Amino acid sequence: MSRLVVISNRVAATGQGAAGAQGGLAGALAAALKQSGGLWVGWSGEEREEADGVPTVQEGGGLTTATIDLSPKDVRDYYNGYANSTLWPLFHFRIDLARFEHDTRRGYDRVNDLFAGAAAGMIGEGDLVWVHDYHFLPLGSSLRRRGLRNRIGFFLHIPWPPRGLLTSLPDHDLLVRSMFAYDLVGFQCDEWRNNFLEYCGTELGAVVDPVTGRVELDGEALVAGTFPIGIDWAHFRRQGETGEARQTEQRMLASTRHRTAMVGVDRLDYSKGLPERMDGLARFFEQHPDRVRDLVFIQIAPPSRVDIDSYRNIRDELERKTGRLNGLYSRIDMVPVRYVNQGHSAAELFGVYRAAKIGLVTPLCDGMNLVAKEYLAAQDPDDPGVLVLSQFAGAAQQLDQAVLVNPHSADDIAAGIARALDMPRDERQARWQACVASVRDQDIVWWTRAFLDSLAA
User: Under the phi-then-psi rule, with left for phi > 0, alpha for psi from -120 to 50, and beta for the rest, what region is 213?
Assistant: First the structure.
């Protein structure tokens, strides 16, 4: 079996039991690395004034990691700058929030080259290399310049924007051309893959086979594939067996006072559509003022990227809208919205999902959205809740029996809430069964194997 080398912005923790204690992507990659005696390369999360790119290698729990520190300028230009203030908003269709600055682009390329230099000396001749996400779009090209001829795959965890948006990015063609250093490029759903293929054919003049996903350009070729990421089904289901999950569920049920609980769980990010979600809830109560005693909405939104202005702004806006909604519709013995600005453990979230009869997942744009899948995994098969899901989440392609809504329309969100609230049990069961099969069968282990088997082939 070929050794696997993973390169991503952040890495899993090492130490006894560390890898096994992590669910989701980190746990799946750690398991694959342990099976192959592999290596995980990434940022340490630490800063030093003069970053030399020399990796610190650690071993523990069968997992080897190699991490490098970054300078404050690297973090400012590469991470807070080009990655999260240019690519992230643009790839989530928010061109109005994207900053196009030459200095941050140069910093992005510089740090990609720094990581490539750190990794290249540790990659053996037969190793499979798997690069992750928008932080490292050109990293494969840097590895090729250092003489690597290994199979190198890349997976994009976020959307790939339509051609008309991507062309607003200065030097967009150079960035995409650099991706032809990869043998396999993976996307979350067909829409993001097709956007990539359409760009390559139209803007670069590449030869594109839309069936196989093979793209040829100037003597180089890659294959673009769809690999919808899943949750760690087995790990997450085990959380439901814990006392922590059961206690959380009981606390939720006791505190809702016979009202139907509806839950949203999101990072505090403008791509998640949280202010628009509050507008939809407000519209529901405007249209059904008598139902304020039937429904309570719990929004869990831990902060993220607090150093970036647009994230601080979204928090302020969400707090204003939540306060206004509660001011209008609260009664002396209850409030319609509970806004929780902190994170929770997987077991606690299982209990919250299980107690909630509606899961409200309405991102404006999302590569996949695993909260939707976690919500389904936590439901009682005899009396499942209803998933109300944005039509612009990658998960909508798989979970087409959810109640799909337009997250930009307050009326559409309100109608989706009303439909979910009044849905009879037999319809809830049928919709849940249709959705949960793919969540169970196409889990994180399936996703890892599917991508790596395709890369090896």
Answer: left
- pLDDT band per the 50, 70, 90 thresholds, residue 383: very high
Annotated catalytic residue within 157, 172, 288, 344 = 157
Homologous superfamily of 4-230+444-456: Glycogen Phosphorylase B; (3.40.50.2000)
What was the pLDDT predicted at 13?
64
Say if residue 222's pLDDT is above 60.
yes
Q: Convert the pLDDT of each residue in 268-286 to its tens digit.
A: 888 999 999 999 999 999 9
Quickly state the pLDDT bin for 427 (edges 50, 70, 90): very high
Element (H, E) at 70: strand 63-70
**Helices (DSSP H) in 51-101: which residue ranges?**
72-74, 88-91
3-state SS assignment for residue 304 = coil
pLDDT at 130 > cutoff 80 = yes
Amino acid identity, residue 267? Answer: R
Q: Which two tokens stand for residue 413?
A: 């969100």
* Catalytic option among 77, 232, 266, 366: 366
The per-residue pLDDT for range 13-22, each reduced to its tens digit, is 654 333 333 4
Distance in angstroms (rounded) separating the CA atoms of residues 244 and 262: 20
- Which secondary-structure segment (H or E) carries 235? helix 233-239
How is 115-139 classified by DSSP, letter by letter?
HHHHHHTT--TT-EEEEESGGGTTH
For domain 233-441, the CATH superfamily is: Glycogen Phosphorylase B; (3.40.50.2000)
User: In the numeric block, which tokens belong to residue 349?
Assistant: 């979230």
> Is there a contact between 279 and 321 (Cβ–Cβ < 8 Å)?
yes
Please confirm, yes or no, whether 102 is among the known catalytic residues.
Answer: no
> CB of 311 within 8 A of CB of 303?
yes
Beta bridge partners of 215: 208, 222
Residues carrying CATH 3.40.50.2000, the chain: 4-230+444-456, 233-441
pTM to 2 decimals?
0.93
Is 344 designated active site?
no
